[in-house]
Amino acid sequence: MKINVKISGMHCASCALNIEKSINKLGSGIKINVNFAGDNAIIEYNNEADLKKAYEIITSLGYHVMQEMSNEDHMHMHEDNIQKMQQSLIYTGILAIPLAVITMGPMLGLKLPDFLTNSYLQLILATFIVAFNRNFYINGFNSVVKAKSASMETLVALGTGAAYIYSVLNIFLKLSEESYFETAGLLLFFIALGEYFEAVAKRRSGDAIKKLLELQPSKAVVIRNGKEITIKIGEIKKGELIIIKPGQKLPVDGVIIDGYSSIDESMITGESLPIDKKKGDSVIGGTINKSGTFTFKAVKIGSETLLNQIVRMVGEAQASKAPIQRMADKISSIFVPSVLIAGLFSAIIWLVLGQSLYFATKIFITVLVISCPCALGLATPTAIMVGTGKGAENGILIKDAESLEKINKAKIIVFDKTGTLTKGEPIVNKVYSYAGFSEGDILRIAGSLEHNSEHPIAKAIIKKCKEEKIELFTVTHFENVPGMGIIALYKTQKLTLGNAALMQINNADTSIIDNDAMTAEHKGETIIYVAVDKKIAGLISVSDEIKSESKEAISVLKRAGYTIYMITGDNERSAKAVANNLGINHVLAHVLPDKKGEAIKRLQKEGSTVIMVGDGVNDAVALTQSDIGIALGSGTDVAIEAGNIVLVKSSVFDVVRALHLGEITFNKIRQNLFWAFFYNILCIPLAGGILYPSFGILLNPVIAGIAMSLSSVTVVTNSLLIRKARI
Q1: CA torsion, points 384, 385, 387, 390, in degrees to nearest 10?
Q2: pTM
């Protein structure tokens, strides 16, 4: 079982790692994946007892779990937290600015009355600032005592705590002529300011889910007992009739039963033009009715609707971790202890070299506050959050972060033919008849064998039979041969319908009609053989129109360096004709549905990362076997479930856009990680005083605090640039 929960109280990536470490070490089938950037976690568990234990551990570490909280409630909670942070920041600023003027004013030539420069006044102001920001100390203490680990709060608590305690002792013990009250106060102010900006930026990174939730109206007009009444959306029942007027949003998914209209589906599918809808057509909750009034029946409600499924998928994707993030997490887990050691080591070295305790304390504080594990922890998840949100806004649903990373390694893309590159709506082009049978006889036999099938070719044959007003008969001893065709009996006659391979198995001689078959196959048409008692009675040639955007999409992908394959159950001649039309050089023909996964596996054995694009039940194995499965939203539920990425609009060109989005997102992750590593590698030695012996340059702790705050904000802001990218 799996549950997505909200967690409040996390202040840095180390908090998330502490929760993961404490719960994952339990084993016994429970696993947690915590996303600091999204304030949520995915918990996998076997029973309720395990889940309860996980909640208890999270609570014992000083964090709060909101297990039953909706996305809307979580957003309101996040807004409340930001307001509280803003309030605390204002109070801290009101005290920190006077403290800075009192302690630093005289150094700038500002003449102040003696009572203002009193150390006890500085103590009072600094004490109130520490009290307003006590959570740093409480959380830092909890990390060490309960999680047996250190966090960013631990560094801030130790750094500012050292400055405050040193200054208090200095009042009574006269350790030096200078104190650090302003350092403690201003550090807490700038760190709180940085956390506030970071929280605001993080909120913006999750705007995609907020926008999706806003698509759903709060009320709907339904027909009950012959009357129109307005109810809340949560009260809608399956099968209920709902009236939609121009300009209104659809509350749930359903089917139009009366009326017609033009509906704007751009917010769900990314399709820019409104779609005409009539009786019998499906409609999607969250879309906007542009013109006309219609009545539709509710088919999917609550969590079943496409909109809510999209919100769930995006939420789970944002909570997932890319492999590159695990590397950053490992570094973060040892980062804080390493910084503590570095700070102590630097202070001791300067004491040994003859510097004062005041100087060594300043070095210790600066090293602690300038180090920033948050930038490392935010580098990947913020980019993932914005990237998956950007995809959702454009009808590209990315189910997990790992797929975004794998996209950048892929060089082979395998496309299913029917329904993916083609429209999946075959039509009968021509009927050939032999051995005394008429074209009507051939259609009658084929239609009688196919009338219960849902296969696209079967539907084309049945449609042709209806057009020709052909009466069908009932067959017995029906046998479906997967990937080949059908065998059945009519009275005493054995009827066979399918491909050439099935004809060979049943010893039906196809040589007499090879010319007709070859002519059709060279046009890219699919040939259906019809045999009666082992004699070829006729052929039906069926074609499936290529999607208008398929050729351009393939061309763009080839220019981008991808090797393109087309996989199909069709014979080689038909397959190659379609492939040539699309500019595809590599064809995997005659591949039965249960063998598609093996075909993908062979390509992977060559050392390639393979993307599979498909839409049907027979693509599910291949989608699962591939490194990245891209499922078209118009396809079956099985295919959509098997895919790592779902294209709501079912456009082949959205494959190009999905790959481009993956590239943009992963580039941002690389940039963020580079900045996070570069910042810490550069700033920690500077804070340790490496430039002091040669140039007399020593970093001020307050400047270090500002730099630490800005590093996190920089990473989040860089991730937000994905929202501006064109895909």
Answers
A1: 170
A2: 0.74
